[in-house]
Amino acid sequence: MPIFSRPAQATAALAFGALFAGSVAAADYSDYRDQFEPLPALPPIPSDNTLSDERVELGNMLFFEPRISQSGVISCATCHNPALGWADRIPLAVGHEGQVGERNTPTVLNSGFFEAQFWDGREDDLEGQALGPIEDDIEMAMDLDEALDRLAEFDEYQEKFEAAFPEKDDPITAEAVAKALAGFQRTLNTPNSPFNRWVKGDDDALTEQQKRGAAAFVDNGCTACHNGPALTDSQFHRFESPGSTDKGRYLVTGDESDKFAFKTPTLLNVAVTGPYFNNGSVEDLETAIELMAEQQLGIELDEDVVADIDAFLHSMTGKQPDFEIPALP
Amino acid sequence: MPIFSRPAQATAALAFGALFAGSVAAADYSDYRDQFEPLPALPPIPSDNTLSDERVELGNMLFFEPRISQSGVISCATCHNPALGWADRIPLAVGHEGQVGERNTPTVLNSGFFEAQFWDGREDDLEGQALGPIEDDIEMAMDLDEALDRLAEFDEYQEKFEAAFPEKDDPITAEAVAKALAGFQRTLNTPNSPFNRWVKGDDDALTEQQKRGAAAFVDNGCTACHNGPALTDSQFHRFESPGSTDKGRYLVTGDESDKFAFKTPTLLNVAVTGPYFNNGSVEDLETAIELMAEQQLGIELDEDVVADIDAFLHSMTGKQPDFEIPALP
Lengths: 329, 329
Description:
2 copies of one chain form a homodimer.
Chain A: H1 8-20, H2 30-33, H3 53-63, H4 76-79, H5 126-130, H6 132-135, H7 144-152, H8 155-164, H9 174-186, H10 194-199, H11 208-219, E1 236-238, H12 250-253, E2 261-263, H13 285-297, H14 303-314
Helix pairs in contact in A: 3-8, 3-9, 11-14, 13-14
């Protein structure tokens, strides 16, 4: 059920472009482009968590701080590895003492744009998400009070928390850790992708194949779920990833209709944040596209359409955000 | 047995400096300064491992590459963490599946200047050292051939190895991994410390207390072992770290005289690379100084001398080297 039919010029351009380059009008994909929203430089900021430089700096330190894990060697950046698209490129997260989790690590890039956090949406925002992995027995396995005690031992953390939360008498709190981590993550955005430049009007930012992919993406209905600035509706949809027995959203709501439902993941940086789906069962992006089409849309895509969509999704890899590896106390 | 007696001016400056600043000549520590060697920008480079940009770039990638560990989450940078002085700030290294090793992680900063690698000196150079932790069962626990196979799966690594080792037909080899890692580490130097600037002639680079510490360091004989550009003789000396039963160098040579002997560690960046000694048993640098004096020099240092040496050692923390967190394939 195409939203728009492919413009006639597109076909002409494809068939004759090589022979008559310059003499045939370029295909016009502007109607397709209008189906997408640009990614702003910053996501929405909660009114009670100012994105001050001091708070972001503290969050940056805490994100790379392994001593808030029981072993002293696992930090947020272990699984959300900046060298690997702020994810880990393995199917299932590996945490404390090598324990293997049940779910694939999502990227934190652009995660401030999500309206639900975790694969099952059990938290609404990054502040709610931040402490989960620290305390989780198979992730950082750390008692939160002990984590705070460890931080409080360092004069430098005392100063940084005071600077980030000047209104507090005793600023090293779990809430402050969550707020600082959330703030830092809100700065990890990739608005400078070819895709986003195209959405903003730069016609040369995408190749012809990528534009055909954009058209196929819209025509086949992918935008029903993958929409908004981060290409996710932050809603939950039933999907059976190969090998998965995870009940997903059902574990949060207990609603039968949520069984095996997972949050729509962002497509921004999807080419560098595989493997795919809740259990990371699919390594290859083209296979992931085919599976999505089969299960969510009930269609089998032609091989060349899959290749076009794959090329389009590759345009969503943005310049990686600037950040510092902090010198920790 | 002081090498030089403290210059008379020093005492005068200390006693009267506050009252007669400007009218009393500043203490002259130049004889002490001459006991130290400046740190060059680069360590010696082996004739068979060119420090080409391509090789350093590849080494940088491999240093942050967790997929050459069995779990897929441990890289060189896990224990040699750039946020923690390229070490880990815990007593004993934690590796594969949370296993705890027997020794403290040494910093890789300035390690190209060492003439022996590992606490027990079982390798002479960084090329020899590089593959050890990858294969070690309690560190990255990875079969080396499997590590090479994993790298070879990526087109980008094919290209990067070819660029770094253009003379090889099939460049993804264990030797190439070792050479690239060694090359990258040779770039991780900290010549811009206050200490090194002082050695190069900048009299204002150290505080008076730090200069007094330098004099005490020389006068008490610390330079017998802590000498050369990285403040290590790369030799082995018997030392009993609290709680340690590690036989050290003896495990390599079998010589009775090497029992409990360990390589002299560098003092560069010592203030940010604790805890101290082969088993990381001492957290506090002042305590480490006292213990060293007792065991190695057979003397008990006065509290204020310890404080002076502590201040002097803090001057050895340099501007951390520039590097990139690579975007891995």
